[in-house]
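Quick one, tokens below:
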């Protein structure tokens, strides 16, 4: 009996992750189909490493000042936008159908990208996104306040 349970345990440990990666596991999230060309790295790679790639690009942009990154969060929405069936408008991150939320809600992973970044493609007016309010705040800062904030951020990286 112990051998049977051990064999079953090994089988499940190998089979379930493989089935989940191939989309055969019916208990996982239902990921909306993307439009456009597939990722050169492949879907399995992107599912596993997208966060590391985004953090790498964030570091190059925010910490090194490199603004020539070929991949960006806004480019994700060229292919990964879910549209409302009735209006045809892209759904924002506030909607549980949003592409990112389908997996992240399932995995109970908090996504904070959209605190600053838009969650829809360019050209669609998001209803009062937080990032636009942050830009409004930035415009109201004096040079001294902006310098003070920049110094604080530099010290506390």
């Amino acid at each position: 009996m112990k051998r049977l349970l051990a064999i079953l345990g090994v089988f499940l440990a190998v089979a379930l992750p493989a089935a989940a990666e191939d989309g055969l596991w019916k208990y996982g999230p239902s990921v909306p189909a993307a439009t456009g060309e597939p990722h050169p790295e492949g879907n399995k790679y992107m599912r596993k490493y997208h966060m590391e790639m985004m953090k790498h690009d964030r570091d190059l942009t925010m910490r090194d000042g490199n603004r020539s990154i070929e991949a960006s969060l806004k480019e994700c929405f060229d292919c990964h936008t879910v549209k409302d069936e009735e209006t045809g408008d892209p759904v924002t991150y506030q909607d549980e159908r949003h592409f990112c939320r389908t997996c992240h809600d399932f995995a109970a992973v908090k996504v904070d990208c959209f605190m600053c970044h838009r969650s829809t493609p360019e050209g669609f007016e998001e209803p009062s996104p937080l990032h636009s309010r942050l830009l409004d705040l930035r415009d109201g800062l004096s040079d001294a306040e902006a310098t003070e904030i920049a110094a604080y951020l530099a010290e506390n990286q």
